[in-house]
Amino acid sequence: MSESEKTCLFCRQHDKVLENELAWASFDTYPVSPGHMLVMPKRHVANYFDMTREEKIAVMELVDECKALNDRERQPDGYNVGVNCGPAAGQSVMHVHIHVMPRYWGDMENPRGGVRGVIPDKQKYVKQQSA
């Protein structure tokens, strides 16, 4: 086991809710919404773009299973699905993980723009003036 695997939160975590041969999912320790889940490959790999094709397929199968689980248990009104690739994009644990975040009407005043909200001033669809 490499030093990065020994210190990796997700390589040590064992509270798996869903699992297949190459990936697993758990509930987020710091959920954005009820039912917020994380899906990741079992192999320690930092970036989504460095996963194998097979790992990407396995991860996306579990994304669908996370949705099905939340649909059964919570009946959310929508979902955000996203991954942070690199510290500049907000990645804080260097083991790739996909967020599956159930969304509910009223959980924020105006959800329009969805994932564009990672840069708050860009969430609204306003054409930017060129310099």
UniProtKB/TrEMBL annotation:
Pfam families: HIT. It comes from the Bacteria. Residues 1-110 form the HIT domain. The active site is at H97 (tele-amp-histidine intermediate). One of its GO terms (molecular function) is catalytic activity. A motif (Histidine triad motif) lies at residues 95-99. This is HIT domain-containing protein.
